[in-house]
Amino acid sequence: MKNPSNNPLNRSLDSEIQEVLSAYSSFIEEMVNFGCKILEWDMERTNLVEEDLPAHLFIRNFIGEIDGISILMQKSSIEPCKNLLRTALENVFYLEYLHKDDNDNRRALCFLFWNSWQKSKLIKKHNGKSEHYNTIKQTFNSDRILKETTPPVIPDIEKHREDAENFQSQEKFKLIKDEFLEKGKKIKYWYSAFDGPKSIELLAKNVELPALYEVLYRGYSGSVHGTNIISGRIGINTLGHFSVQNLRFPNLNEIHSITLNSFNLCNIVYSTYISSKIPERRDDYISWYNSFKTLIIE
After folding, report:
1. Residue 190 to residue 94: CA distance in whole angstroms
2. Over the stretch 28-40, which tens digit does the pLDDT of each residue have?
3. Helix, strand or coil for residue 3?
4. Dihedral through CA 192, CA 198, CA 203, CA 207, nearest 10?
5. So where are the chain's domains?
6. Nearest CA to 273 among 148, 88, 98?
7. pLDDT tens digits for 29-84?
8. Backbone phi, psi, residue 142, to 5°
């Protein structure tokens, strides 16, 4: 089974194709630029509190994923874009859940506490004197590559442990800490506390975006897990020989689909975030959206 081109990676694309890729990449880049404006406007608020951090950092991460798609698109590295788009979709679900019926910021507090809670678990695993560390050592010993490697130990681990405990002991976390202590391992994700969704699929249903879950999250599962290796990848070339698609093959249908999906996700995130956090910028968002909608139609 030989690829007739004998070159699985062609970095020199046709000038017309490169022009198309650059246009799509620039289009996505403009989505990122507006997202960065939202970050700037958000940081200008004078009433920011710790509970605002999860939403701000989720949208920041979302924008970073979309920016990565822009860079990959420019280089015609299309398949990896799907990984970034699916991560961006998860951020969409998180942000929608944070902003839905959360007047007391309990969901934001749940994320902050859960994040520290997860860090505490990591501290236990990498405390060289703990039973958890012995379990990690056994895991390393059973690994054919890392069996001669000593598992890392976190420096100044007692300080890290105390800092985590002090953070979790704040009065504002009291109800949340009680919830985590009572239900323990039943709370796998931050959004599962207080009878919240038990999976990302149920989270998508909770925020009324089940179709996006089916199309993008489930649809891109093969790409994320490295099993989407056959469909559209192999065929017969003009010489009648077996052929494998070039690693940077510019599939225009996928390029258009990824770009359009990126815009749709940006629209959801930007609209929700501005309405919730910086409503005085609503007119700026509407102006941006209308200009982009015109470009899509064209």
Report:
1. 10
2. 999 999 999 999 9
3. coil
4. -70
5. 13-100+207-298, 105-197
6. 98
7. 999 999 999 999 999 998 889 999 999 999 999 999 999 999 999 999 999 999 99
8. -90, 0
For residues 81 and 258, the answer to whether their CB atoms sit within 8 Å is yes
Q: Check if the beta carbon of residue 15 is closer than 8 Å to that of residue 60.
A: no
pTM value is 0.91
Residue with tokens 């950092």: 57
> Minimal CA–CA distance to 271: which of 72, 79, 92?
92
Residue found under tokens 């839905």: 100
